[in-house]
Specification:
With about 230 residues, this protein is mainly beta. It is about 5% helix and about 35% strand. It is elongated and about 65 Å long.
């Protein structure tokens, strides 16, 4: 399995690999998993030893990888991934294996990346905020870390439901954008990132809304889990 985005998943696991024929899980982006604590973004079942390499794991709850192979088995290869950190102690907390349960095998995460894998789909932007003036919005978000990032697209609509349709505005490689829209109407905003190959992230982890009035109210909204295949 390769070149997929798994975002906002609330199931026990985002991906379950339980047969020996599943050999490779590469160039994927797995973000904001909300499964059970003893689960994983990727669950690897007993007698399954896939290569899990060159993926982006970030901002998940529970474990990013759960290794259910037994202790005497070959080490699970989870090398060369981006874990959202270069702190080995923090990375170890994202993996459930022998060091959490001595009956299980070891997951080898050596060679971990120092930034997101550029050949995987971009990470969804984070930190989206909107301020509202009397007749326009100012959007700000955090810069993505991908080395091949090309820019961002801003989307908006009036119901806050996916999909956001054809409203995407290519704003280039900036992290602030002003948008003038009719007043006295509530608009919902999101932003996605795209790279130099034209591959896009899923929508930002934050979706905000606002109404351009003298005393606007800004709220944050959470959406259902989605899986996007490129």
């Amino acid at each position: 399995m390769l070149h997929n985005s798994f975002v906002f998943n609330t199931a026990t696991t985002a991906v379950s690999i339980t047969v020996a024929t599943d050999k490779r899980f590469i160039y994927n982006t797995i973000v904001e998993q909300k499964g059970e604590q003893n689960s994983g973004g990727v669950y690897v079942g007993k007698d399954s030893l896939p290569e899990i390499n060159y993926n982006n794991f970030a901002i998940g709850q529970g474990y990013e990888v759960y290794n259910a192979n037994v202790q005497s088995s070959t080490d699970l290869n989870v090398k060369n991934n981006w874990w959202g950190s270069t702190n080995s102690a923090l990375i170890e907390q994202k993996i459930y294996d022998f060091f959490d349960n001595a009956s299980l095998g070891v997951a080898d995460y050596s060679g971990y990346l120092s930034s997101p894998e550029p050949d995987a789909p971009p990470m969804p932007p984070t930190g989206l905020q909107v301020s509202v003036a009397e007749n326009h919005f100012v959007l700000n978000w955090n810069a993505n870390q991908e080395s091949d990032l090309a820019g961002y697209k801003v989307y908006y609509d009036q119901d806050g439901k996916y999909p956001f349709g054809d409203t995407g505005i290519n704003v280039g490689n900036v992290t602030q954008f002003s948008l003038y829209l009719p007043t006295n109407t509530t608009y919902y905003f999101t932003v996605l990132a795209y790279d130099k190959d034209g591959e896009s992230s899923w929508y930002s982890l934050d979706v905000v809304n606002g109404t351009p009035t003298p005393t606007p109210t800004i709220n944050q909204q959470v959406y259902l889990p989605m899986i996007v295949k490129n």
